[in-house]
Amino acid sequence: MRALATIDRRAAEDGVRALATAYGWEVVSLAAAELVGYDVPTPSETVADAVGTPSVAEAAALAAAGGRAVLILPKTTFPGITVAVAG
């Protein structure tokens, strides 16, 4: 992995920055408007209502991976965090 990508409102959080620093990852901050257009397998109406895009984890992973990226690990939820990996 080379980056930790998330929605802009989370990118400045201490925990996000600390995790990225610990692993030497770049933090990629994306606006909801940048994430909304990604076709993802598990969109969420709840997330869309809360932040303005139906996907953060999967869409951010795809955006950060670029061009022809595909999801390697679809959205996976753990207590307090949701992750996805694209490449």
UniProtKB/TrEMBL annotation:
Ranges for domain CobE/GbiG C-terminal: 2-86
Name recorded for this polypeptide: CobE/GbiG C-terminal domain-containing protein
Species this protein is from: Paractinoplanes durhamensis
